[in-house]
Design goal:
- The complex is a heterodimer of chains A (114) and B (116).
- Chain A is mostly beta strands and 114 residues long.
- By secondary structure, chain B is mainly beta.
- In chain B, the strands form 3 sheets. In chain B, strands 2, 5, 6, 10, 11 and 12 form a 6-stranded mixed β-sheet that branches. A 4-stranded antiparallel β-sheet of chain B has the order 3-9-8-7, with no helix packed on it. A two-stranded antiparallel sheet of chain B has the order 1-4.
- In chain B, β10 and β11 form a beta hairpin.
- Chain B is globular and about 45 Å long.
- Classes of the chains: A mainly beta (114), B mainly beta (116).
- Chains A and B meet through β5, β9 and β10 of A and β5, β6 and β11 of B.
């Protein structure tokens, strides 16, 4: 089975533009997580879903960030409008039901906002 | 307060030697899981090993073992017979059952460099 798939792998955009990051979790995994990684703040959990339902979005930094999971095989993280401080690597991860299962990470999307 | 603490920002080890990466955690939840991930310079996050709070024995996966000391709330990763390819960032993480929320928390990581 393929691992977690993220697209695009790299995104360069100008401040003020809308950015959409995409994720396809591992088939059969009930949990999906979005993380942001920066040198300053490390790995931060932004939001996670269980069975397509957002469970905790307390890590979403601002209203400019939104995430959706319309079905079990697809999720998006949108930033509108983007700002230079949003530059980071964004990871999507998924895990099986059970809650204490390990997460499998996608390759990440490196976002640069100029 | 930090839930996961990794006090070693950087570690160096000679090839073929063993190395221990420290991790302490803070939780009042009796049900939790502890994880280690490896992030090589290419950037992907790779799951290495898992220890459940109720597990009686320390977890092992090949050259990786987890030294779980529950009373001391530590979950150190031991890598035996280090290889050059082990050079990477290593992250300790915890998921607490927390009434069903299972929110994961990651430490800041330890950079490991393996010398030939």
């Amino acid at each position: 089975d393929a691992g977690v798939i993220q697209s695009p792998r790299h995104e360069v955009t100008e401040m003020g533009q809308e950015v959409t990051l995409r994720c396809k979790p591992i088939s059969g995994h009930d949990y999906l997580f979005w993380y942001r990684q920066t040198m300053m703040r490390g790995l931060e959990l932004l939001i996670y879903f269980n069975n397509n339902v957002p469970i905790d979005d307390s890590g979403m930094p601002e209203d400019r960030f939104s995430a959706k999971m319309p079905n079990a095989s697809f999720s998006t993280l949108k930033i509108q409008p983007s700002e230079p401080r949003d530059s980071a690597v964004y990871f999507c991860a998924s895990s099986l039901a059970g809650g204490l299962d390990e997460q499998y990470f996608g390759p990440g999307t490196r976002l640069t906002v100029t | 307060a930090q839930k996961i603490t990794q006090t070693q920002p950087g570690m160096f080890v000679q090839e073929k030697e063993a190395v221990t990466l420290d991790c302490t955690y803070d939780t009042s939840d009796p049900s939790y899981g502890l994880f280690w991930y490896k992030q090589p310079s290419s950037g992907e996050m790779i799951f290495l090993i898992y220890q459940g709070s109720y597990d009686q024995q320390n977890a092992t996966e090949g050259r990786y073992s987890l030294n779980f000391q529950k009373a001391r709330k530590s979950a150190n990763l031991v890598i035996s017979a280090s290889q050059l390819g082990d050079s990477a960032m290593y992250f300790c993480a915890m998921r607490e059952a927390g009434g069903g929320s299972y929110i994961p928390t990651f430490g800041r990581g330890t950079s490991l460099i393996v010398h030939p």
